[in-house]
Amino acid sequence: MVGVDKVATERHVFDWFRKNRNAKRQVLIFVHGYNNSYADAVFRFAQIVHDAGTDAAPILFAWPSRAKVFDYLYDKESANYSRRALEDLILQASMSPDVDDVTILAHSMGTWLAAEALRGVAMRKNWIPAKVRNVVLASPDIDIDVFRRQFVEMGPNKPRFTIFTSTRDKALEFSRLLSGGISRVGGTDLTPYTAVLEELGVTVIDTSAIASGDPLGHNAYADSPEIVRLLAQRLGGRSLTAGEAKFSDRVTAAAASLGRPAKRKTAKGPVDSSEARKLLKREPVTSTGQIVDGQISY
Length: 298
Description:
Layout: H1 10-20, E1 26-31, H2 38-52, E2 57-61, H3 72-81, H4 83-95, E3 101-107, H5 109-125, E4 132-138, H6 144-153, E5 160-165, H7 170-178, H8 194-199, E6 202-206, H9 220-223, H10 225-235, E7 252-253, H11 274-279, E8 290-292, E9 295-297
Parallel strand pairs: 1-2, 1-3, 3-4, 4-5, 5-6
Antiparallel strand pairs: 6-7, 8-9
Helix pairs in contact: 3-5, 4-5, 5-6
């Protein structure tokens, strides 16, 4: 039987990490999506970690989804509310001398939250810490124009991004209709732009032809053994060529390497977004959240 223990303080968190870290001192942060209860998120993350065979220390960032199909807008506001806490988690992990490598895996609406948190980290610290090496966005429910802005405002030295898309994702089609007909990143055919995206450090994997047990086609990243194999290689930092990724031509790898380590340096200057700095007010809270009774508080 699996038990769950609450960690009361930040010290307890790092004590746990020291006991569970691998030789590479890797952390895997998972951000769940819309319509997910806490139990759903725990089960899904445990499944991914087990099936992918990763030994990175798993950290679930659970945000308050109402876990109801018709509460999409409520979940959107909850994700918005949770941005600061995820920023703090990313900073705490990357600033720890016990951690050398941070990978972020996010799904569905959680990808918007992850992208916003990374953008927020860049705005607060003037760069994204170099330890944040890889970001995997599965079925990203993000307005395609919003993601373009988020990506720019993360600054010049970003993590390596991998995006799993599918033009058969019915959940993202529903989101598109709710959002005024604006395409979602995860439901768009990005293959015509793969050369440009690769230059920007973004790998696109089109999963449209992959069979999944999910009738909505929204959970292929975790339901399909083939996609889990891709995730395993990404999380393990192993290289993956386009030829190896085809799986009998059913998966399109839109770049030459999925697992290539990002070559990055810490930026010394400010994020190149003067327009955003004029439009956005500075955060009223300057201190980093602290873990109190198992929750991040300020």
